[in-house]
Specification:
38% of the residues lie in helices and 27% in strands. The chain has two domains: 68 residues; 116 residues, Glucose Permease (Domain IIA), CATH 2.70.70.10. The chain contains three helices and 13 strands. Strands 1, 4, 6, 7, 8, 10, 12 and 13 form an eight-stranded antiparallel β-sheet that branches. A three-stranded antiparallel β-sheet has the order 5-11-9, with no helix packed on it. The protein is rod-shaped. It is an alpha+beta fold.
């Protein structure tokens, strides 16, 4: 009995009091565990944030691509519509050399821009428009006046020939005549004049007009 009882007493659970060193170690382990958990949480939060940033950039790129595609489609549709309707612009001469500018010249006002080119060089309609005058006129020699779809009124002067007549509808790039040296002219060229009205002589500098219409 005594031996057995001793064995039982020896094997029974015992409560141990932690000394100072053990308590410090336990606290250190707890703090380390808490710091590890906090670090892991921060890393997970950072990973989530980075993932959100990457996803946001990806979505922004997709949106930008779609917007660019929509803009390109709209521009293509607008171009196709303009081409169908003849509402686009071409140069009056494919190649020219400016021989005289708009403004004061030889004591008078020069109301147009002189585009030098050999006699017989083809002249083209700038866009869709209506011929409002075609024929001979004083110092202009053979003269063509066209009012275009946007209201612009353009005069061609000193032509060697005119290939359209008053009332005709012209389309962009259509042959309307040829460069010449008729009327009061000192060399073969096209006198290109921009008017602000179809009924009055109200010339304006052709250069800004050409630039606005993409022809400069």
């Amino acid at each position: 009995m005594t031996a057995t009882g001793a064995t039982v007493a020896e094997s029974a659970p015992q409560d141990f009091d932690l000394n100072g060193t053990q308590s410090a170690m336990a606290r250190t382990q707890q703090v380390a565990s808490e710091e590890m958990a906090s670090d892991l949480a921060l890393r997970r939060q950072d990973a989530t944030l980075q993932s959100a940033i990457v996803q946001g950039r990806s979505e922004a790129k997709v949106r930008a691509t779609r917007a660019a595609q929509r803009e390109a489609a709209a521009a293509a549709a607008a171009k196709a519509k303009a081409e169908r309707e003849g509402k686009y612009w071409v140069r009056p001469i494919k190649v020219w050399n400016i021989t005289s500018w708009f403004g004061p010249r030889w004591g008078t006002q020069h109301d147009g821009l002189d585009l030098g080119a050999p006699t017989g060089t083809p002249l083209y309609a700038l866009s869709k428009g209506t011929v409002i005058k075609a024929g001979w006129e004083d110092s202009f020699g053979n003269k063509l006046e066209v009012q275009y779809w946007d209201g612009s009124v353009i005069w061609y002067g000193h032509m060697s020939r005119i290939d359209v007549k008053t009332g005709d509808t012209v389309m962009p790039g259509e042959l309307v005549g040829a460069v010449g040296n008729t009327g009061h002219s000192f060399g073969s060229h096209l006198h290109f004049e921009v008017q602000q009205s179809a009924t009055a002589d109200t010339p304006t500098n052709p250069v800004p007009w050409l630039k606005r219409h993409g022809l400069w």
